[in-house]
Specification:
Elements (H helix, E strand, L loop, with lengths): L11 E4 L1 H15 L4 H12 L7 H13 L2 E5 H9 L11 H13 L3 E4 L3 H5 L2 H10 L1 H13 L2 E3 L3 H9 L4 E2 L6
Parallel strand pairs: 1-2, 1-4, 2-3, 4-5
Helix pairs in contact: 1-2, 1-4, 1-5, 7-8
């Protein structure tokens, strides 16, 4: 799926852990009034990947998030994001800022938390193999996206492969803008 303009879509989005971390980081950059260069450096640090993306892609991600009909996170994604808070690098010492940004994101209108039990995933035969390969967080994203007829925001290759196999639309940072 190709995205023409972040403002032109009104979609339901299921957000994976790395994208939630990026959104929290973007909110931190707004709270600190960072310029484009500083914002880009911070978000690349949070993204923690070798391939660099143009700074505009982060702005497109933010606009997509703000303009989505609905943003959905699972409780497992929130827990994972909390566990990966060390990825905030230079903001690690600013725990208050990170918490404020995270709460702003999670309280924003249009975002909701979806819950599921791991047993629910395991009890569905069509998800047992996926659960073994991806784990419960990513399998939960698949089932949530399927249930909600939503697009998954992820850069995780294995999750993308399973989403495509199950005909679930996927967007990643390279396709934004």
């Amino acid at each position: 799926m190709t995205l023409r303009s972040p403002g032109s879509l009104s979609r339901k989005l299921v957000i994976d852990t790395n994208f939630l971390l990026l959104l929290i980081g973007y909110e931190c950059s707004l709270l600190q009034n960072l310029g484009d260069i500083e914002r880009h450096r911070l978000l690349e640090e949070i993204r923690a990947r070798d391939d660099h993306v143009p700074f505009e892609r982060f702005d497109h991600l933010w606009q997509l998030f703000k303009n989505a009909e609905q943003n959905i996170v699972t409780q497992h994604v929130i827990a994972e994001a909390y566990g990966l808070r060390k990825r905030f690098g230079s903001l690690r010492a600013r725990k208050d800022l990170v918490w404020r940004a995270a709460l702003t994101i999670l309280r924003s209108s249009g975002i909701e938390e979806d819950s599921f039990q791991v047993r629910e995933l395991n009890d569905r035969p069509e998800y047992q193999r996926i659960l073994t390969e991806l784990g419960f967080t990513d399998t939960g994203l698949l089932i949530t996206a399927e249930r909600r007829k939503a697009t998954i925001l992820t850069e995780d290759g294995a999750l993308q492969d399973w989403a495509m196999a199950r005909s679930i639309p996927v967007l990643h940072l390279e396709r934004l803008g």
